[in-house]
């Protein structure tokens, strides 16, 4: 029999449960899924806003919006369109009932447990598809799921974190991509841009001084050739510094640049 078994409302940033249905079945498979609920709640900030996890005879679906995630457990044969329509109803009601200030400042688990009354009523409706089909329009949800299907979380991804934060590699239509931090360059910071510009300016200044030193050397014997070498070495060092700054910059690099011109 296809049906919704339970649902939870969870804060995304720290996985704090805000509300949940209180009628969990006690079967072994359902109890195992409760563990997956907890594991997923710790990873919500890393995941797309619409996901599905298949766990044997059960599916866990969730959506996230405005810092809150709505998660549900259903049998594997429960229709996707009904599952996400159910979650969408929970989301709309929760946003209407509670403002963001309350959800952001909540410190106790299940501090909105009274929302379970709405979860229970909605779950009963969605577990009776014959009466449900005449009350809601599923065409919009069907189109949305077709255009932007939920990301399928693998058990391998879920089990990869044992107290260690890991990034998911996500690639699916409409959901974007999330890459590991070490596989992409970080955007340039203000200090990096400043150091890069200073490196180029100091390199140009040393180059000009080098040419002036050559002119002085040719006009008189008083100019030491070492000054010419020093200025051109300074130019090379600044250009090298600029290249290094382009990829990664530390504040101490600015000090190194300035030392060449003392």
From TrEMBL:
Stored CDD domains: Longin
GO cellular component, one term: endoplasmic reticulum membrane
Main location (coarse class): endoplasmic reticulum
GO biological process, one term: protein transport
Pfam families listed in its UniProt record: Longin (PF13774), SEC22a_C (PF25970)
Protein's job: May be involved in vesicle transport between the ER and the Golgi complex.
Protein name: Vesicle-trafficking protein SEC22a
Source organism of the structure: Callorhinus ursinus
